[in-house]
């Protein structure tokens, strides 16, 4: 069962984050973080993100809101980039961060929005190159 969830997790992870991102993460694995990487592949990607209960668009919005609300800003740019694959629009992201402002605090939402703007600008610049 776990092998199947790992395989599904890698499939979903690649579809959401893109092959280049996953390939870099896989290449950077060491003996120290191998168990952790397996855990997130099976649990986050092979279980939660693989669930058909809600769409990847909705999961993107939830993930971004939760990252911002809990102050885990490091992964926001990665998940903003993922919106290109999940279908979450800039307006969806703004709506998620507005919820964060009301329910978790304006400073966290403000910082998340700043990161989103920077990341979208980088994505647009990369498209134009």
From TrEMBL:
PANTHER family cross-referenced by the UniProt entry: 4-CARBOXYMUCONOLACTONE DECARBOXYLASE FAMILY PROTEIN, CARBOXYMUCONOLACTONE DECARBOXYLASE-LIKE DOMAIN-CONTAINING PROTEIN
Carboxymuconolactone decarboxylase-like domain mapped to chain residues: 37-117
Top-level taxon of the source organism: Bacteria
MF (Gene Ontology): peroxiredoxin activity
Organism: Thioclava dalianensis
Protein name: 4-carboxymuconolactone decarboxylase
């Amino acid at each position: 069962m776990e092998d199947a969830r790992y395989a599904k997790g890698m499939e979903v992870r690649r579809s959401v984050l893109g092959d280049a991102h996953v390939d870099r993460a896989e290449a950077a694995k060491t003996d120290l973080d191998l168990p952790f990487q397996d855990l997130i592949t099976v649990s986050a990607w092979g279980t939660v993100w693989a669930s058909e209960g809600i769409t990847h668009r909705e999961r993107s919005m939830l993930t971004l809101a939760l990252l911002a609300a809990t102050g885990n800003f490091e992964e926001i740019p990665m998940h903003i980039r993922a919106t290109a694959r999940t279908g979450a629009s800039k307006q969806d992201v703004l709506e998620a961060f507005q919820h964060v402002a009301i329910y978790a605090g304006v400073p966290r939402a403000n910082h998340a929005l700043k990161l989103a703007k920077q990341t979208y600008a980088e994505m647009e610049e990369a498209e134009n190159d």
